[in-house]
Amino acid sequence: MAAILARRHGEAGRAAAAGEVRPDTAPGEPVSLADACPGREVTVATPLGGRPYWLVGGPVADVLPDEAPIEAEYAAVLRGARQRFDELSASAGLCHLADGGPGGPLFMDIETCGLSGAMIFLVGLMRYAGGRLVYAQHLARDYAEEAPVLAAFAEALTSAGALVTFNGKSFDMPMIRERSIIHRVELPSADGPPDNRLPPHLDLLHDARRRWKGQLPNCRLQTLESHLCCRARTGDIPGGDIPDAYQQFVRDGDARRLRAICRHNLLDMLTMVQLVCMLLTGCDGDGQ
């Protein structure tokens, strides 16, 4: 995956990824995709031949510099997780992460045009590589680019030591399987050959409920984020508004709200990284 990660350059790229509005953009002026979500067009093999899509990515700390300490904490936790793992009564999924290194897990979060059966237009991925947390957001610029986005995810999944999601067993992966069948994109399988085998899947929602149910108002991802990660999002787009925002982008090409969607997706994955650290160390966000 590292070979296709797009790198960002300059303040404009950092501001766009952080969801900030550029000062030279008038309130009513359309924002291009390249300005809102700096990246590049890449082509991936699909059953219908090579197909392009838009790739946004790079080191997380380049676009969210205030969150840079998270990558060092994550690496340290994963390298030493085995030492405390038995004390934590960890789930099988967490045990698998504890047995591996920080570069093994692949964090994933999708954005769709609605509920079951709706198009997947964004597959966000995050992993630790080269001493950095890096992310890759595979973005369909229109409905025809869903197939290459799914194919890119299938390719990335083959090199993952584990897949980490939040509610991914009930939502993300069933959606991906359904849409992949429609496009004839082959996903790794549990009984596939070693180079095309589905990795263990850790759904953090289940571990979060075991750990924090009854202690917090609920175990939704953003509730955990605000209480445990102490992160207050500004300019975030509500999940219910995401389908309409994407469809508007397809209609008129104004990527202003797409920028907020990419930031929303990136922060969701970063929160998952932090939850893994807490679950493997027994510490909450305040270090207790």
Helix-strand layout with pairing:
Layout: H1 10-17, H2 33-36, E1 40-46, E2 49-59, H3 60-63, H4 69-80, H5 92-99, E3 105-112, E4 120-129, E5 132-139, H6 146-157, E6 162-165, H7 168-183, E7 201-203, H8 204-212, H9 221-229, H10 242-252, H11 256-281
Parallel strand pairs: 3-6, 6-7
Antiparallel strand pairs: 1-2, 2-5, 3-4, 4-5
Helix pairs in contact: 4-11, 6-7, 8-11, 9-11, 10-11
What does this structure look like?
Helices cover 41% and strands 18% of the residues. With 288 residues, it is α/β, with parallel strands linked by helices. It has a single domain, classed as Ribonuclease H-like superfamily/Ribonuclease H (Nucleotidyltransferase, domain 5, 2-Layer Sandwich), CATH 3.30.420.10. It has a seven-stranded mixed β-sheet, with helices on both faces. The two termini are 36 Å apart.
Summarize the structure.
The protein has 288 residues and is an alpha/beta fold. The chain is built from 11 helices and 7 strands. The chain has one domain (2-19, 31-281): 2-Layer Sandwich (Nucleotidyltransferase, domain 5).
The CATH class is: Alpha Beta
What is CATH's topology name? Nucleotidyltransferase, domain 5
Strand order of the largest sheet: 1-2-5-4-3-6-7
The helix-strand sequence is HHEEHHHEEEHEHEHHHH
The helix content is: 40-55%
What's the CATH superfamily, by name? Answer: Ribonuclease H-like superfamily/Ribonuclease H
Strand runs, count: 7
What distance lies between the first and last C-alpha atoms, to the nearest angstrom? 36 Å
CATH architecture annotation name = 2-Layer Sandwich
- Count up the domains: 1
